[in-house]
Amino acid sequence: MSDAPSTGAAPHADGHAALRRWAEGGGPPALRASIVLLAAEGLSTSDIARRLGVSRQTVTTWRQRYAVEGVDGLRDRARAGRPVEIDEAEIVVGILTSPADDRTSRLLARRLGCSHTVVAETRRRWNLTGSHLALPALPLSPSLEPADLWPVGLHLDPECTVLVLAGRTASPVPPAPGRRVDPYALSAVSSAMADAAAAAAGAASGPEAAAPLRGGAASFLDSVRRVHPHPDLHAVVLRSATGGERVAGLCDERGITVHRIPARTTEVSFLRAVLALDASRHPESSTRVLLDLASALAGMADSGGLSRVQWVREPLPAPAGARLPATVSGAGPAAGGGVNHIDLGSFNECVVIETVRLAGTVTRGEIAERTRLTQQSVSRIARSLIQRGLLVEERQRHSSVGKPSSPVRLRDGAAHALGIHIDPNVLTAVLVDLSGRIVARRAEPITADPRPGVVVGQIAALGEAVLEQAGHGRWEEGFLGIGVATPGPVDTVSGTVLDPPLMSALRDVPLRTLLERRFSCPIVIEKDCSAAAVGERWIGRESRACDFVYLYLGTGVGSGLFLNGDLYRGLSANAGEFGQLCAVTLGRFDPDGRPEILPECNPGSYLGSEPSRVVGRQRTRLTVHQAAKAIGKGVLSVIDLLDLGLVVIGGPFFTADVADVYLTEIEHAVNAYPTARRLRRVRVERSVNSSEAVAVGAASTIFHSTFTPRLRRTP
């Protein structure tokens, strides 16, 4: 059927007013009126389905009913027999997508168009009573005790649809207040699942072309068990053309319990409810997990059912507070030893530490003057920090007026962190103390083996070697954790590397989860350019106590942003993709309209000062001068957009023989061309960090998240 918006007549003036009143109300009439009104605005069936979170068939049905019968076609029709029961999975989704204050049974019933007693009964069955969400219970058959359930796999073909859940014991702790499911991502999965299920049903009753697609459940279950070997696995049969006996047999062979969905749900609504439960309870269930599943389902719908979906989620993160097994001999994090976390009791303590860090050495009176805290507060906080070993007193300063003052400074050895930088060519690991001094370092070429397990094993072994090289007495006190810097994009919520350029071995690898199996300490995954900016801020002290953009020249060119005193990561923690901005600024696009991957943003391929020449249609490699001019245009856009006064340049390809070229060209671009050039002079400076800038920055992300004062503490 055509997806054009012409299906369904446009409402006349009186009908338009009536539909507006319906849309402002609640229940099914509001949904139906919204479909017609959006269609009248010219939206396609797919766009309406995505916006409202329903299937395309639902949209088509109500548009056709309105076209034939007008407003009356949107009303409920009298039916013989028992009244239609509302889908309880839709009630669950309504609970999870509502703010905490709007989760009462009566409010939900009014919005969903059903009885509040039905809503209350559903809440009891799913263990979702109260304004906050406790540990849910899925009313499956056979029954399943309340547990921490994660959807870890989905198989869909013309023969069956199977959802696999991983169960782990957990205390009934509700999710953080205010957390809500991403409605757009959930709607994308719902719409894609409805279309894929319809395509699979059509293929199941269609010609023999779908026959080769049957029978893939065995390999799917093997994949799920291989990726998730430890949790208890439960297979929920959402649909089966053969009654589920074959799927049950396959699951029994692999030690997987088989369940059936509740009678008052459908395969689409039940999946939607389970995904909403997962996303609301687990911060690791980022929007990416939902969108990846939607993408896999969309592929089957697009093929008309002539393909299968076999989606397997990455390994789950370690349970909170769990003791991870030792994998190497010796003490410390690699062997499951205790980690000495530094407990900061207040925001003001972080303010004092930040002031001392920036100044280097400073008196209590100067701290009070800079922070506007009272002398008594500063003295009390300083005394506590000295007792805990974070600060040390220097020799007294004598003055002609008043008492001698005792300056304080950070004790460098009070805290340590391990930083690991993953580059397409080389791995670097450093152990850094609180001052940013490198205690131990090691670098080695990255393995050519394309298997992710081998690469992750090399990363972990390198980190263990650096800790061993430093000696246990050098870092055990106040060891705060491990920062890992990797090429982006990266899902920092789940610690998964997505699509790193030139590193296909790490595509969709759950790096943090795999490293947690080797190190029992906090681990933070960060983009390489963002980590370098954090290191610059931490090591640069007062010279970097302002907003700046860090231009990172590595295998590619990236940027890190410090805005309003903190690292700006963006919505998905992937801010700073400089290469595309540079391509747009230069007007360079490929035939599909995407910004080009510019050779100017690959510093490792530059020539010296020799000009490039054209040989036939092939251009020889760029000179540093040519590339610096192009990169300067990209930096100009950043300065014009953000109105910054400092650009810092660093990275492994920012070497002494090319530094002057970059500094000269970029400084000219950001001061000669900006719109507000009469109001500011932009400084362009070298990084204060060493060639291990990103590795030091990765370790500094641990210090930054621990000590930097912020009202909302996030890593």
TrEMBL record:
InterPro entries per UniProt: ATPase_NBD, Homeodomain-like_sf, HTH_MarR-typ, ROK, WH-like_DNA-bd_sf, WH_DNA-bd_sf
Source taxon at top rank: Bacteria
SUPFAM superfamilies hit by this protein: Actin-like ATPase domain, Homeodomain-like, Winged helix' DNA-binding domain
All copies of domain HTH marR-type, residue ranges: 356-398
Entry's Gene Ontology molecular function annotations: DNA-binding transcription factor activity
Family: Belongs to the ROK (NagC/XylR) family.
UniProt protein name: ROK family protein
Taxonomic lineage from the root: Bacteria, Bacillati, Actinomycetota, Actinomycetes, Kitasatosporales
